[in-house]
Amino acid sequence: MQKKLLFDCHIFLVSxxxxxxxxxxxxxxxxxxxxxxxxxxxxxxxxxxxQQVHVSxxxxxxxxxxxxxxxxxxxSTVDYGTTPGKYDSSGTGEHTSYRYFFYTSGxxxxxxxxxxxxxxxxxxxxxxxxxEFNFRTPPATFPIEFAxxxxxxxxxxxxxxxxxxxxxxxxxxxxxxxxxxxxxxxxLWDSFGRLVEPYASRRPWMVTQGNHEQETFPIIYPNxxxxxxxxxxxxxxxxxxxxxxxxxxxxxxxxxxxxGSYADFSDQYKWLANDVARIDRSQTPxxxxxxxxxxxxxxxxxQGEGESMRVAMEEMLYNSRVDIVFAGHVHAYERxxxxxxxxxxPCGPIHxxxxxxxxxEGLAMLYKEPKPSLSIFRxxxxxxxxxxxxxxxHAHWSWHRNNDTTAVVADEIWFQSLSSSxxxxxxxxxxxxxxxxNDEL
Length: 441
Known about the structure:
The protein is of the alpha+beta class. The chain has helices at 2-20, 156-167, 187-200, 226-231, 265-277, 307-319, and strands spanning 51-57, 63-69, 77-81, 89-92, 94-96, 99-100, 103-104, 107-113, 121-126, 133-136, 144-148, 172-176, 205-208, 247-251, 254-258, 286-290, 324-327, 333-340, 343-344, 350-354, 375-379, 383-389, 394-403, 406-416. The protein has 6 helices and 24 strands. α5 runs parallel beside α6 (307-319).
């Protein structure tokens, strides 16, 4: 009863924020669906059974399984195998919990399992009881497909986005920040975990933080990210990072750098210099960067909020010949041409804002007019994207608008890797002593 009362209070406060937030009229030529309410996903399993199950990549051929139990005596173990109901391997990990004011989390488990075979379905059970889950590992070679969605939240539009993403196969989800929109209301972290479990337990979700993950409070929680760091533990240590807020990983010929728009730029810059200096384009011909606050943005929302980070880090990414940069934060979709230092540049990355996963704040409807020449396509609609990398040289990007029951491809482009361009040879200079990172557990 007490938990329900606390949750009702949390939902009331969030609802007030939603009602007073400005929403604007449509600026494109189709009928846009109205905002949808918050979806609270309850826990309807026994306390000892896993909930909020999600998986993430950990190095080559390993996967981390994370979940929560209300019962504290459940072991942090995962049994798994390639046949339903038959588990011939197991892994043991660690558990933790956290407090935030009057809220105490359940027991949060993190277990790394492997080595695993590529392109293989594994069936697994968490903590020795409860339902069986399954996930599929990424392939060993191209092609590989990434789903991309930012600023998800947990509304009716979020559920639509998740269903649309799941309607066709993908290998890894990339999420450029703003996951649950709990905004200090910790039961919404639990609800979000349960909402995404049917999807995040089946494919690896690789995430970075947004402003809604900060949850700072003067003196008591000055550093923020307490719930995010505890629940969504990414493999930052493996890339030499000292923070869960920024890290990198390799998967199928692609080096992916997850940067922290709200992490310390000084330490992050030093780590990034080490990281890009280790990139071997013969092994990972593609380089993708994920941030939250966009560096380029013709929407009137959040103007200039990524500028300090751009000034600090853009030159390094340009010299490293990053192929594409995904951002969230602005609740709309926008694709720019290849760009560097506010000018079109054939050796610069394509910048894409995709903060339109379904958040409760609604869409950012107003743009600068006339449209800047650097902006190729922009639209204020909920949706998700797909990055399909075919081989060392060619990839296809598509943005899928949520048209209620269907996802409609509204923007798409074929493009080549910069590593395949003779005129765009990487110009990497590092004055930072390189940190050696072990590629195996």
